[in-house]
Specification:
Blueprint lengths: L1 E5 L2 E6 L9 E6 L5 E6 L5 E6 L4 E6 L6 E5 L5 E6 L5 E6 L6 E6 L6 E3 L6 E5 L5 E5 L4 E10 L2 E4 L3 E5 L4
Antiparallel strand pairs: 1-2, 2-3, 4-5, 5-6, 6-7, 8-9, 9-10, 10-11, 12-13, 13-14, 14-15, 14-16
Length: 168
């Protein structure tokens, strides 16, 4: 899945990872607002995009009508969204507290939201089993947080530093 711009239209398209076969148009946007593909759900039913100013998160339903709907919106920026394995949660960064922090929210319904980082964070990424979330602190330290569901309740552990990331 990828985004491109052509003749003033922003297009969300997909193509087989092998490079073979045609490019299939998923959705076409008529707006020139900043749009960026953040992630594609593991069940391949949704894509999540960053768009607008301030940057908010939107969902594109990839089955049926392929409609676009708001997921995270407000007078703050939300970006870097990643679906959890199993597509039950979305992790993302937001500056709604005054600085960039990492949050997890239930998906597709908004039934719960948890702040994961406590000293700034961005670039969330789930471990393959969904039991851990990684993110970058502003000082480029890679952080790890345990995630689990106990008796139907989502629980966020304490962030732990792993190592300093060397960025080129």
């Amino acid at each position: 899945m990828f985004m491109s711009e052509h003749n003033g239209k922003i297009k969300l398209s997909q193509k087989a990872a092998t490079g073979l076969g045609p490019v299939t148009l998923v959705h076409e946007f008529s707006t020139k607002s900043a749009l960026g593909l953040n992630d594609w759900s593991g069940d391949r039913r949704y894509a999540i995009l960053a768009r607008g100013r301030p940057v908010n998160l939107a969902l594109v339903s990839l089955s049926g009508e392929q409609k676009v709907s708001s997921f995270i919106a407000g007078q703050f920026n939300a970006y870097g969204a990643r679906f959890s394995p199993g597509t039950r949660y979305v992790a993302y960064a937001s500056d709604e507290t005054g600085k960039s922090e990492v949050f997890v929210q239930t998906f597709p319904e908004h039934l719960g939201k948890w702040q994961v980082s406590n000293s700034g964070g961005s670039e969330p990424l789930w471990r393959h089993d969904g039991n851990e979330l990684f993110y970058l602190r502003p000082d480029d330290t890679l952080m790890s947080v345990d995630m689990k569901t106990v008796a139907g309740k989502f629980q966020v552990g304490t962030p732990k530093p792993l190592f300093q990331v060397l960025l080129a």
